[in-house]
Amino acid sequence: MGPLMLGEFTLHGLDYAAIIGYFGLLAAVGIWVGRKERTQPDEYFLAGRTLPWYVVGSSFVASNISTEHFIGMIGAAYVFGLVPAMSEWGNIWVFSLLIWFFIPFLLASRVFTVPEFLERRFNPTLRMFFAVVTIISNVVAFLAAVIYGGAVALQSLFGWPLWFGVLSIGLVGGGAAIYGGLKSVAWTDFLTIIIMILGGLAVTILGLQYLSGGSNSIVDGFRVMIERNQGTVEPWAQAAVQHAQRMAGTADYNRLAVIQPLTHESHPWPSLLFGFLSVSVWYNVLNQFMIQRVLGARDQYHARMGIVLAGFMKVLMPAIVVVPGLILFAIDPSTLLILPFNEAKSQADRTYIVLLQQLVPIGLRGLLLAALFGAIQSTVNSVVNSTATVLTLDIYQRHVNPRAGQRRVVVVGMIASAAVTLLAIALAPAIQKLGKGLFVYVQELYAFFAPPFAAIFLLGILFRRINAAGATTAVFAGFVLGIGMKLFVAHSDAAPWLAPYAMQAIFNWCFCVVVCVVVSLLTAPPPAERTTDQLTINWRRLNILGGLGTNIFNSVVTWWLLFVAMILALVVIFSGAFF
């Protein structure tokens, strides 16, 4: 096959029918659901707080799964092995915190946005700064990356110019969010996640059958995939694994282990234990386009059970967005053997498209392309809607036109959605020039933006003594430190453990915690109105037992324990001790 080379990609009439039918159904559902959601901000931005648990959970995951996964994470698995699965399984910690602590706080506060919460707990400066950072990160780290990944897929499949693919995906993907608001987005997400899971599993099953050597046995194919990624059988597979070890900088690198050395580029072992305190809290709790689904839930039970459902989906996701990378490595690892490491990482972003071309028969390709572009549309919709929410409520209504009526606020939100989409379209082509691979590009940006805000949020809800001076100082100092570490690693002989962006995030988070605590203790305590029970934890009044279900079968506790046990079992199995 060569280094992920693509030949002619053809579609049958059935493929086109599947694609047209899928997007036609999404458009119909989005228009129908969103037809009455454009008169009140609570309806447009939070779906009138009416979302049931199955929509909350499916939309929570669908908003997260996009080209970063189908293009970036599968490509990262081709290069690094199984360890990118921890980006999914590692959510066990923050999902548990969401279910037991964060959801009661956020729903009780009745806020539209996280910046609004930060103002009530700290000060207007942090609200504005967080709003600005949210808009920047959403456009640069989320929206532009997703649009770029989709354009790469279109370029690889059909030879479209990159700019045309970017423009097409940006305009089509942003349309539903501009029209119908969160309710429209959330219900189309519910349909999208079904197609993503079915289509993604189909690629994995076809790949394992291909590896089985003619028996079409998934079990045989899985065994071959494991052996070749271990490098224990064929000499060429052993050579590829050894070459991957050299590129990773350690002879201890195990492609089938989720616990990796301290210097691993994307997943050093401390990030498995402490990474959730920074990146995961920021991404899943403070990130507006994720937490917006929770804020739009009917009540506490539906919010909690929605996150439980999202947890089960995270158990499954590596079978869809990691295993295909291992499969293609087992079929042909030549890209890692032929190309320089950085170039190989960029080229590996074509892994999913190669699998579509090589393994998927005509007639099924349309469904799988619908899964890919459905994931793109879902994330574009979600990010556009949430970014417009922050831009409209935290900047326009707060600072530009405080007297704006509700209808005016919704109209400005729709205009903001269009502006955000166009800006991301303009920025997306620049990602191609970075040469890091889509997954690493996105994760590195997360690791930069997350630590300061995650630190002050956790401290702010846990300790009433934390004040605005400490939080503000910590946030600005954290961003200065983050920039300083990037420059230090790039232009000096830094310690090897500091090079991985995940280690920089952990170090920055610890620094911000210390700064926030010290400055808070050296300055006056916060006023009483900033430490109410809605803004900080009152352990005596914390409603942990509310909204947990009425019996063992619909109990949040039952299903939470089950998904936690499944993830812990998978981490133990793939810790490196068994493979």
Highest-level CATH class of the largest domain:
Mainly Alpha
What's the architecture of the largest domain in CATH terms? Up-down Bundle
Helix content: over 70%
Q: What spatial form do the alpha-carbon principal axes imply? A: globular
CATH topology of the largest domain: Sodium/glucose cotransporter
Low-confidence stretches: 1-5, 37-47
Overall mean pLDDT: 80
| Span of the ends, CA to CA | 28 Å
Compute the number of strand runs. Answer: 0
For the record, what is the CATH homologous superfamily label of the largest domain?
Answer: Sodium/glucose cotransporter
Count of domains: 2
The number of distinct helices, counting runs of at least 4 residues, comes to 26
Share of residues in strands: under 5%
Summarize the structure.
The protein has 579 residues and is an all-alpha fold. It has helices at 13-34, 41-46, 53-64, 67-80, 86-89, 92-109, 114-121, 124-158, 162-211, 218-230, 235-248, 270-274, 279-286, 288-295, 300-316, 318-321, 323-331, 334-338, 341-347, 351-359, 365-400, 406-427, 438-462, 468-491, 501-522, 556-573.
Structure overview:
By secondary structure, the protein is mostly helical. The protein has two domains: 13-111 and 148-430 and 549-573, Sodium/glucose cotransporter, CATH 1.20.1730; 448-548, no CATH class. Helices cover 72% and strands 0% of the residues. Helix 7 (114-121) packs antiparallel against helix 8 (124-158) and helix 24 runs antiparallel to helix 25. The protein is globular. Residues 1-5 and 37-47 have low confidence and may be disordered.
